[in-house]
Amino acid sequence: MQPRMILGKPGRSQFRSAAGEDGLVGEKSPLRISGRIPTQFEVTQDLAKWTPQLNRIFWIPGSTDERPVDWKAVTEGLITNAMLDSRNVSTELVLHVRSHFGERAFVACIGANGRWACDRNTDWWTNRNQIANPAIAQRQMTSLLYNEDGTPQVPNDLLNQGELLRWVYQHSVAQKHGLFGLAAHIGPKGGPELDDLPIYDSSDDTHALLIVVVPQGDDLIVYRKRIAIGK
């Protein structure tokens, strides 16, 4: 089973307002399932305008049409402390990733103690809300990036980077408070808090977390892999 997430892009809502016009709504309707569970069924989901949608998919490992990733061939010797300190993913690593995932893939890497690097691809900047309504975008961004005590959930020098990069960082790195003061990650539970998404212990300076994002139709496929840091 590949370690990946699927991020759905904003779609058109099937809701109607009291005035009878399509519009933003505060609550979403439940999923509609047709067919026979667990083998032959379809799920229909309404999406609100200008609102990102995260779909979480769980499955039992078995035969798959997905081509296995040779992570060693993709990354061997290419993820180093020097690269993380520079904040720039090397051209060689980008080429290796794209040779497997395609030319549209973009790459980032997360290291210990707030270090990170990315390929500076403009696709990291995916904030559609800012185009529609900057005020709403700022409110959403604030709630996404800061803890209740006002401290940022991402490194300070990541605050000026693309929204998608910040989102992936926040939901990949375990924050050292609460439950994550005792554990680096927890088992999948599918809850709305998304607290089972973090998989990287930010105190582990011997490994980094490789992030590969692949556009696929209206979705973004996010692959995350823990990789030993080269010398």
Annotation keywords:
about 230 residues, alpha+beta, 6-stranded antiparallel beta sheet, two-stranded antiparallel sheet, 8 strands, globular
Number of helices: 6
Mean pLDDT: 75
Query: How are the strands of the largest sheet arranged?
Result: 4-1-8-7-5-6
Beta percentage is 15-25%
Number of extended strands: 8
Brief overview:
The strands form 2 sheets. Strands 4-1-8-7-5-6 form a 6-stranded antiparallel sheet, sandwiched between helices. A two-stranded antiparallel sheet has the order 2-3.
Characterization of this structure:
The protein has 231 residues and is α+β, with helices and mostly antiparallel strands. It contains six helices and eight strands, in the order ββββαααββαααββ. Helix content is 20%, strand content 20%. The chain has helices at residues 71-75, 81-86, 91-101, 128-132, 134-145, 163-170; strands at 4-8, 32-36, 40-44, 53-55, 106-110, 116-118, 207-216, 219-228. The chain has a domain at 68-228.
Task: Give the secondary structure arrangement, pairings included.
Layout: E1 4-8, E2 32-36, E3 40-44, E4 53-55, H1 71-75, H2 81-86, H3 91-101, E5 106-110, E6 116-118, H4 128-132, H5 134-145, H6 163-170, E7 207-216, E8 219-228
Antiparallel strand pairs: 1-4, 1-8, 2-3, 5-6, 5-7, 7-8
